[in-house]
Specification:
heterodimer; A: about 110 residues; mainly beta; 7-stranded mixed sheet; 11 strands; B: mainly beta; 6-stranded mixed sheet; 5-stranded antiparallel sheet
Chain lengths: ~110, ~110
């Protein structure tokens, strides 16, 4: 079945450490997205990519970095510069056209030790 | 600035008590309006796309409608399994991203 796979489901970070969240899709979608969701809050866009080797900052990009070396993969690194990284992180993909919905993975929950 | 506002933030219903969720938007160049359902600890699941004013889509107890300024998600005779957070989002002309509302959390009591 086609879909989006995020791993790991739970992740713990020590102070001063960078961590990388994985996102893979087999939907042949051009566009991929990373969102952050805090308890009781909506989705806030971190980064998005409409094509391989290109990506744009979203609304809350500070303290995060991404790469898009393959169409299927869009990993997110939470750097030590992100002072409040505890959150639920969601990856999504779409055709990239404004008239098509996004398809989401089941998220990674990041906590600080 | 493009904006999507959902109301109410939370809605508690008794089983069988029908109601509606609202999504109002102020955007330029709407390409599509999307409704999603999100269960706790899961990613949003796509429900409907609406493209033009007057359009309606139905799925089981849910019906989504669209006007030029807002969309409604009507829930008819809800069941406890309909309890979830419902998100709406708009897809914009010449944009590779959607703008999401903050969601309405629906609780249906048996």
């Amino acid at each position: 079945d086609g879909g989006i796979t995020q791993s790991p489901k739970y992740l713990f970070r020590k102070e001063g450490q960078n961590v990388t969240l994985s996102c893979e899709q087999n939907l042949n979608h051009d566009a991929m997205y990373w969102y952050r969701q805090d308890p009781g809050q909506g989705l806030r866009l971190i980064y998005y990519s409409q094509i391989v080797n290109d990506f744009q900052k979203g609304d809350i990009a500070e303290g995060y970095s991404v790469s898009r070396e393959k169409k299927e993969s869009f990993p997110l690194t939470v750097t030590s510069a992100q002072k409040n990284p505890t959150a639920f992180y969601l990856c999504a993909s779409s055709t990239g056209q404004g008239n098509q919905p996004q398809h989401f993975g089941d998220g990674t929950r990041l906590s600080i030790l | 600035e493009d904006q999507v506002t959902q109301s109410p933030e939370a809605l508690r219903l008794q089983e069988g008590e029908s109601s509606s969720l609202n999504c109002s938007y102020t955007v330029s160049g709407l390409r599509g309006l999307f409704w999603y359902r999100q269960d706790p600890g899961k990613g949003p699941e796509f429900l409907f796309t609406l493209y033009s004013a007057g359009e309606e889509k139905e799925k089981e107890r849910l019906k989504a409608t669209l006007t030029k300024k807002e969309s409604f998600l009507h829930i008819t005779a809800p069941k406890p399994e309909d309890s979830a957070t419902y998100l709406c989002a708009v897809g914009l002309l010449n944009a590779g991203k959607s703008t999401f509302g903050d969601g309405t959390t629906l609780t249906v009591k048996p």
